Protein 1
Amino acid sequence: MNTFPDQLRRWQRELRSQFPLIVANPEVAYLDSAATSQKPQAVLDAVVSYLTTGNADAARGTYPWANRTTARVELARDRLRRFVDDPRPQASGVHFVGGTTDGLRAVARDWLAPQLRDGDEIIVPFADHAANGGAWLEAAELLRRQGAHVRVTPMPYDEAHDYDTARLAELVSNRTRLIAATHVHHVYGTEMVVHRLRAVAGSDIPICLDAAQGVGHLPLSMTELDVDFVVFSGHKAMALPGIGAIWARNARGPAYVPAGWTGSPNTTGVISLAAAFDWLDGAGLGRVAHWTTALGARLTEGLRTLPSYELLGRRQSLGIVAFRHRAIDSHDLGFILASEGLLVRADGHCQGDQGEKTASVRVSPHVYNTPEEVDRLLAVLAGLDRSW
Ligand code: PLP
């Protein structure tokens, strides 16, 4: 079967041509999109156009530029609700934050901590990104300082690094106040079984989703996922750095409201985010997911033929592939690949305490990457196979 038929190739070529940094550097294969994505011209244009035609602060002034900016920030909230296929947009809140880490900490500090009582419990995925562990530990620590003990229970995993919902069902109790989960794993690339968590959690326990690797990579449906919070970073989803959002369902517990004064919004960030959603919806997220999955599968198949490499993931990946060379240190391998113009990440990937114990190389393609780039990477890796 041809995984990359001509029609799909044409679609991808057209999209790739819209990324100025990619086009300007044909000798470089940027394969680190799980860290941050490249930006399409449409997003850059939206930002430049705003800054050169009507830059002003939002929710403050009364003159036209300010009013227009305020309106654009409000429209961006609605845009986000549509992007995540929010079934009840009138009943959800959208709050702009700096990114995923910032957003998770805000939910933990401003929403969860004030509700926690002595003897309560939260379930935390310590083999996911450290941002989705640290935030909840901070909430428990806040309570400890007030003399209350909150049990922090590690989320159970199965042998494929996915959530073990059978064991989770045994852990959940009437003192469980939150389950923290991740949409797509940032090391293994797996779409986690988030859609099965609601059945385990029952109707009362809030679920907070770290969607840093989901938003911008596959279609999202809040009806299907049935979680209470979705938190993500714009810079991983084609928008600028420094912007992210919390989508909050406002159904279980009080509505999320940031504590204290949040200051002027990041207007250019918000505008870039709305433009990125337009671009991604225009590209078609179903196809984007198909493309990156096919690139990941090509890499995985190639690596399986090279005995010197150990693959980390055990289930189909949405594109992210992590591996180690059995003899070459992963950091060194990262430098070797960079010297060949192959830009990958090589370290521990900020995984939590229950994650991998040694560094690995992570390849994370996006829609601008090609099968030829994967083949280039495989050729260099093959050259290092059994050579040590
Ligand atoms: N969660 C996941 C799954 C991630 O992959 C990342 C970043 O790599 C983060 C959280 C943190 O995102 P940020 O650094 O944008 O706050």
Protein 2
Amino acid sequence: MYFELSEEQEMIRKAARDFAQNELKPGVIERDEHQKFPAEQVKMLAELGFLGMMVDPKYNGSGMDAVSYVLVMEELSKIDASASVVVSVNNSLVCFGLEAYGSEEQKEKYLKPLASGEKIGAFCLSEPEAGSDATSQRTTAIDMGDHYLLNGVKNWITNGTTASTYLVIAQTDKGKGHRGINALIVEKGMEGFTQGPKENKLGIRGSDTCSLMFNDVKVPKENRIGEDGFGFKFAMKTLDGGRIGIAAQALGIAAGAYELALNYSNERKAFGKPLSNHQAIQFKLADMATEIEAARLLCLKAAWLKDQGLPYAQASSMAKLYASQTAMKTTVEAVQIHGGYGFVKEYHVERLMRDAKITQIYEGTSEIQKIVISRELLR
Ligand code: CAA
């Protein structure tokens, strides 16, 4: 057992931390308030190589490991979870899926511009009536010989309006259940494909989440990922890695709120001494720090397993479950420590508290993570 990061991993973490402080922090409150997508910042993240972090350099990726991905996600999410979700979805739900299961032609055409960050991708599984119950897809992809005819609606799609490339999960043969589902690469601009308005959300308000509508969209057969009927397993395998990213996002939100609370409790005085001299506050800080460290270890373990080529589905669900609970609990406590100041935007913690909630919902609710974990336990 070895807990040290390599020199390279330390450098990557520092680059992410500096970027978050210098480029994300200045406009984060305004972007949240006006639901403004961090377009300039996403371009800079692409230049840093953070949008295709784990992709092989031969496909324009940075060839970094999953541990580095966790470090970057934590640092970015301490400051701006709306920006970090773009990084997470592009890396683990889009680039990973294409690199692991796409054809050589798909990698050349679609993965390369996504890994370099020239283009942004979206992962489209959720529907108005199929969120947790992912096999109940109503979107249909009917086999027409040389193409699929795609019809239906997708909901809550991260990068929904800014993406150029969409990985869409759809039902081809209902009679075959999950084995009748396919994953198709859909390009923005294909006839019959439209995007709905940006959702007005509680948190991660800078991220553009919207619905997608497919009306007789002709998707060429060569845009199907993997064999016929592989779509559901494609989605599940991709989400296994995605959950490491969201777990690290939750970790970052918690760590960001904790750091703010720690600093505030040293500065602010009450009853003649700094807040941090009161045992009630010390106990809160001790709980927060301990839970954050446990969440960090779960995230790093899941990433390490992935890097070793070992099974990591259960570990990523454990990391996501625990880190998202920690994010929620820690941010609520951070607001409490700040008192009235915690309730106003200038102090950042109220935003982190709002952002924390989505980590218990997307890429599988906490209840879904418990299903995944317990199935592995009982297998
Ligand atoms: N890896 C590989 N295969 C898997 C798998 C995995 N992790 N999980 C399931 N499978 C396989 C099973 O082995 C089974 O295959 P066989 O029949 O060949 O054995 C098949 O898939 C069906 O599995 P289940 O019977 O377990 O399927 P289920 O209907 O009971 O569902 C579930 C399982 C875990 C609940 C799943 O539906 C799930 O994860 N739901 C949540 C979906 C989700 O995370 N949605 C979030 C949307 S994405 C998002 O939020 C993106 C964003 O924009 C941020």
